[in-house]
Design goal:
The protein is of the alpha+beta class. It contains one helix and two strands.
Length: about 80
């Protein structure tokens, strides 16, 4: 099984799954220390969803590792 047809598939999306495709306009501004990412919901009804996604991205990238409030991490959740 070669599977060479799958190589490079889906690489255009910055390497991450994009559940938000078409949901928000994204502007990237270069700054001396990195980049500024501005997410603007295209639909007023999707503002909260876009904000949640931005927060998730922030948590993921900052690597602070702080659990989301109201969701205590339970060690026995996996049933192992």
């Amino acid at each position: 099984m070669m599977g060479s047809g799958m190589m490079g598939h889906g690489m255009g999306g910055a390497g991450m799954n994009c559940p938000m495709r078409g949901m928000a306009d994204v502007k990237v501004e270069q700054t001396p220390t990195g980049a500024l990412l501005r997410l603007t919901a295209k639909n007023p009804g999707q503002v909260e969803e876009v904000q949640r996604m931005a927060e998730g991205m922030q948590r993921c990238m900052s690597g602070s590792g702080t659990p989301r409030q109201g969701q205590p991490s339970s060690p026995g959740a996996k049933g192992g």
